[in-house]
Amino acid sequence: MQLPPRRARIAFALGLILASYACARVLEVAPTGIPRTAIVALDVLSAMAFALFDGARHYRLRGILVFAGFCIVVGNFSENFSIVTGFPFGHYYFVELMGPKLFQVPVLLGLAYIGMSYVSWTLARAIVGNPHAPVAGLRIIGLPLVASFIMVAWDLAQDPVWATVLHGWVWREGGAWFGVPVSNYLGWFGTVFTIYLLFALYLRRRAESFIAAPPASLRPAVVFYALCAAGNVLQVFSHQAPAVVMDPTGKPWSYADIAGASALVSIFVMGGFAAIAWVRLAEREKDATD
């Protein structure tokens, strides 16, 4: 069946963005001469482009820009505050891998909040009841809560690789999760929950920002999250890192163990969230046609 022209253009644009993101994840583990900062930029900017383009379909341009604003302001404030005080994430600092900084935080890191925060929020919408129900009542807390778990699952898989192996940022005192402290994940949960709660309150007050759409319209975000999980699994096959890496405390960590743990979290936690979201959307589609 041929899609209407507008839907075909949207599908092409989303497909192109997803392909760009997938390319970035492959380049992360491929032995190329491309500067790693450029690969990080492709990763972050393609995720942000997905959020802005797909988000405009669901919340109008104004709504997704408000969401992006919450991500940038809350995310950058939390990161800068933690670098100075150690709260909420812990004591750490950024190095050159992430590119130029705004205050203490790389610009790319600040923008990275937008893409995955949006994708995690969309998966939560797919999982928590009717994805197009008004954001009111228990959903004001329920959606941010589930979205925060989905987002932290992503960071649980990513942070040891980016910190302990690639040294995109350095945890001054190391930590139990392959050189990353538990405080990082508690801080992540609190930070993204704040972002999501602010957006839920915005949607409650501006119901007109919500555009009704079929359940299938949420599937690209599920695919994006699954691609991210698959990209993490690819790290197992990378031969660019040394067999043993050291955290700042001098504790050695096996790269194979770090990559293996990341893959397991990606398959069974991130993959689990993606599978639940996909099945829930399929059930919604079936109910709509019955």
| Shape field | globular
Largest sheet: 2 strands, antiparallel
- Overall helicity: 55-70%
Indicate the multimeric state. single chain
Largest sheet strand order: 1-4
Which features characterize this protein?
mainly alpha
Protein described:
The protein is mainly α and 290 residues long. It has one domain. The protein has seven helices and six strands; from the N terminus they run ααβββααβααββα. The strands form three sheets. Strands 1-4 form a two-stranded antiparallel sheet. β2 and β3 form a beta hairpin. The longest helix has 50 residues. The protein is globular and about 60 Å long. The mean pLDDT is 93.
Tell me the layout of helices and strands.
Elements: H1 5-29, H2 36-85, E1 92-94, E2 101-102, E3 105-106, H3 107-127, H4 139-165, E4 169-171, H5 182-205, H6 219-234, E5 244-246, E6 252-254, H7 255-289
Antiparallel strand pairs: 1-4, 2-3, 5-6
Short note summarizing the structure:
The protein is mainly alpha-helical.
